[in-house]
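Q: Hi! First time asking for a complex rather than a single chain. Here are the components, and I think there are two in total. Is that enough to go on?
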Amino acid sequence: MKKLSELINECKELAFDLSYTRAKQWKEEKPGRAIVGYMPIYFPREIAHAAGALPVAIFGGGDRKQIIKGDAYYQSYICHIPRSIIELALDGHFKSFDGFVFPSICDVIRNLSGIFRQLNIGSFIKYLDFPQNFSKDIGGVFYKQEMEHIIHYLTSITKKEVTAEALNHSIDLYNKNREMIDFIYKIRQDFPWRLNMEDVYYIVRAGTVIPVEEHNKLLEQVCYHIKENIGTPQDKVKVVVSGAFCEQPAVGLIKAIEEAGCYVVDDDYQLGSRMIIGNIDAQSSDPLMALSMGFIKQSQYSSSIYDVSNPKEYRLAKIVKDRGADGVIFASASFCDPSLLDAPIFQNAFNKMGIRYIAFQYSENINQYKVIKEQVGAFSDSIKLWEDEPATVQVTNK
Amino acid sequence: MAQEAQKEKSMVLQKEMVEGLFDALSKVSETGKKVCYTFVPGNLSELIRTFDMLPVYPEINALQSAMRKKSASYIKEAEKHAHSEDVCTYVKCDVGMLMKGNIGPTGQKLPEPDILLLSYTGCFTFMKWFETLKREYPNAKVIMLHTPYQENAKMTPEMVQYMAKQLRDEVIPVMEEVSGVKYDENKLKKILGYSKEAGDWIAKIFDTTKHKPSPIDAYFAGVYYIGPINIGFRGTPEAVEYYKELYSEIMQRVEKGLGPITPEGEMKEEKYRLVVEGPPNWTNFREFWKLFYDMGAVIVASSYTKVGGVYDMGWRHDASRPLETLAEYCMNCYTNLNLPQRIELLSKCIKDYKADGYITNSIKSCNSFSAGQLAMMREIEDRMEVPVGFIESDLVDPRYFSYSNIKNRLESYFQMLGQRKMMENQEV
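A: Yes, that's all I need. Here is the structure of the assembled complex.
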């Protein structure tokens, strides 16, 4: 058993390794293996695993990659993540990748799939159109067909047959993975001082670039450590962060929120790793349909899923209540349509519900957090000092 | 004082059609007609008409508000209510208009929707827009019709079936329930027959730019020509008659060797033939157009006139497969095409219409068009060996129309085109 600090350091190295060293090693260890890169938010990694491929999340370059060529592909008013992904691609970071999946998040990521096609990056490109119809016989069938296309692409490289047994095994591994991540969040709900948000971020993100079996081993050890009463409680308010599901804030910003007087007890950073709530049936005779229904019936709310029958503002309000949070921080990437278009829906509803919130925008490469830190600090103070007063509404652009 | 715009007969006919629609909308409390809000790309005009409902197009309202100089105050109103500066201005204009009493472009109050029909085609923002509207109109029934993206440049049978199933099992039953009208497939087929005819005519009309000089401007005037097929009249004998008339007018111009009609009269000399990618700016539409015709530039093809359907690659409505054909129509709208398909289509336009250049009008708040435009532009420049130009503006937010910036860029671009033409002539 490794020490918690060792595990965190290991995850930190893995999480921001833009050379994807472990993925490359894994591929080289055995012939017939493949790597499939996927963009945020969510990708059913189980199908890649069952097909003998390693799914690797592509979150962009963050604040660790200077953008030179990427800016030539995008106007100034388009978010930052596609330009850093292009930069990574053109600089050869994805040389070992066999294919790429672009899940339907927004028009920018959708059209990025076209640029990858145009630049002939990878041996296959798949825009994964998530169903916006939630009937089993309509949207369920369509999504299953979408996954079959990806399996076809992958198995044409790995030459591996994807059986129901293999898929069920993969589903089981990812169920365990999500269970352990959920456990970490449950511990943080009650004892957030045992593991800070920055460390949680490393731990979860590491799992997006290494085999699930290895991540599960890491998580088992982390879970073991945080069962112990470690760390010292501090006088901080509990908040939920929402809106940062695609372009990721720099770690410095994640850290700044907690340093400014908040415990983040839930968030949608790297939402894909926690997208499915509860387990997916791992003993089905039709595991692809089980995965499909898992997405349709068990998904977390998301700005990319049509929500009219299950409004997102109530779902987020429930998270706030269940986690015992004092307020919400809406953190949107600049020019992120899905997040920014949801902002009025959330904020109007929360004004009526009396849920306190603040909102700000960030970009993955900003590393000046003074203004945001002051804003978060004021938010935290306002809750601590004037708990009975109505929430203060602040909206800051960039 | 601004010069009075010269209007072709077709423009007058179109105006009458639009006014008729808004008039009918203002009288729904008397007539009992049901109202369906929907979007232009992937609009199911034929189905709406089958159920005797009246359509409202929020984007059309937004652009009309911009042309009437009302969008700035609507946008400001929406921004006061947490709508970001950085998102689609059509949405904000529509939301602001709603907050200010929902007075439509003709000055009449628009009725509330009975149905919000979200034909989610080629634009992610549509989905967010109707999520917002649903909260404003809690009594409206919502129908989501998910249109798969042509990611692999194909409309596969499974994509068609996915859409046809949605239409059969979810869209039609709700329309029946709300309208009180039973689905009549024969009626739909008849309507689709007219849509096919309208498609034939619109393709012929935009193909007239093959002539030199081009008898029409396929962007600035083109947005008027696509009006009837995009605002609910596709599938009507009136639309077919309108397009026949329009075609006849255009052919008369061809016979006389005349160029396009502009708001200041007939364009005298065609110096440059251009293909334009991206929607126009609506807040300063006439100024924007003038920048082109003053320089003798005519647009011989544009991507924007294909947002409500791509007819120039041969696809037509097929009445014998009513639901499948509606599915294909939705999937075949311009913004539902992948980037290589868009490049292919625009390259074909440059070749077929012998364009001298290619211009991108990059719209700040429309990622469906804008994301990827720079890569498209480079590819087209390499492939077609035509000079490319780039300008930026916005749909309906006047803050992002910078006249002098656009003018400077266009002047430099036209200078470059002029020099190139001169050199080509010298070589000849």
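A: The longest helix of chain B spans residues 403-427. Let me know if you'd like any chain examined more closely.
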